[in-house]
Amino acid sequence: MDNNQFVFRKAERNKAKLRLGLAGVSGSGKTFSALLIASGLTSWEKIALVDTENGSGDLYAHLGPYSILRIQAPYEIKKYIMAIHAAEQAGFEVVIIDSLSHAWAGDGGLLDKQADAAASSRHRGNSYTAWREITPQHNSLVETILQSPIHVIATARSKQAYEQTKDENGRAKVIKLGLEPIFRQGLEYEMTTFLDISLDHVASSSKDRTGIFDGQYRKLSADTGRQLLAWLETGTDVPPPAPVFPQVPAGWQTATLNVQVPIAPPFPDLPAPHLELPFAVPAPPAPSGNTARALPGPESGLGNLRSAPA
């Protein structure tokens, strides 16, 4: 084992992109709050909303000129992943997923797929082993959110419970409570901040790395987004990863090969990403005079080649 893999370095604060979760019962204001926070992170034109709530995202068009992409049943994980990538490629700076709960408990969501898998001949009713097919899909969505180069705000419905209390006049009244989010357990651990919103539109944090919401109960606004942005922008820029080139034999040079990599299960029909793979090729002979020698092109069958950066 190479001991150079285990080298400590000083901790350094880097700039980051927001991963915010908002959970609440119906009527708590999740979509409205998400849009206000997003408007504090960027301009309205740079906000994209992925709507699974039957067009509810259009109800707040008076707030500003944000954009909407509607997802309908079946609520397959690959639709969410493709929507996030579409927002990235379109140049948006914030994507709001409203909501993640459909990917879990909606028509065609993960729970439906797990039930179908358990009933299949592959698992013969074994619900436990059926999760082996479903967990990779869940993990793919979480990783897409975490690795996105833009801010991500995800809402989730909360399970509802009711409690009888008394009002200020001593009369009995029934209030609606929000319990855990309707999504796979542990979602809050993946986020920068996770907020629970009450029916009175007041937010409190169940997880907060920023310290902004610690011990606080507050209504969310564009100022909340600006506070989060100031925290996210504190630190140094994250440098792009340097390309790793192989050891080059004497008389050879490095180049990169652009390839299209097939997507493995669970999503074989997603668009294949392009990767640049470093490799070595024999160095061309020194040119005579001013004549330049070009590296092989697509007609060579090797793909598009370009010289490696110095």
Outline of the structure:
The protein is an alpha/beta fold and 310 residues long. It is 23% helix and 25% strand. The strands form two sheets. Strands 1, 2, 3, 4, 5, 6, 7 and 8 form an eight-stranded mixed sheet that branches. Strands 10-9-11 form a three-stranded antiparallel sheet, with no helix packed on it.
Keyword list:
310 residues; alpha/beta; Rossmann fold; 2 domains; eight-stranded mixed β-sheet; three-stranded antiparallel β-sheet; 25% strand; globular; disordered C terminus
Element-level helix/strand string: EHEEHEHHHEEEEHEEE
**Total E-strand runs:** 11
The main β sheet shows up as: 8 strands, mixed
Shape: globular
Number of H- or I-type helical stretches: 6
Distance between the termini: 30 Å
CATH topology of the largest domain: Rossmann fold
CATH architecture of the largest domain: 3-Layer(aba) Sandwich
Radius of gyration from the alpha-carbon trace, in angstroms: 25 Å
Helix content bin = 10-25%
CATH class category label of the largest domain:
Alpha Beta
Report the structural category: alpha/beta
User: β content, as a range?
Assistant: 25-35%
Give the low-confidence spans.
291-310
CATH superfamily of the largest domain: P-loop containing nucleotide triphosphate hydrolases
- What is the average per-residue confidence, as pLDDT, rounded to a whole number? 81
What does this structure look like?
The protein is of the alpha/beta class and 310 residues long. It has two domains: 19-232, P-loop containing nucleotide triphosphate hydrolases (Rossmann fold, 3-Layer(aba) Sandwich); 252-307, no CATH class. Helix content is 23%, strand content 25%. The strands form two sheets. Strands 1, 2, 3, 4, 5, 6, 7 and 8 form an eight-stranded mixed beta sheet that branches. A three-stranded antiparallel beta sheet has the order 10-9-11, with no helix packed on it. Helix 4 (110-119) packs antiparallel against helix 5 (127-147). The longest helix has 21 residues, at 127-147. The radius of gyration is 25 Å and the shape is globular. Residues 291-310 have low confidence and may be disordered.
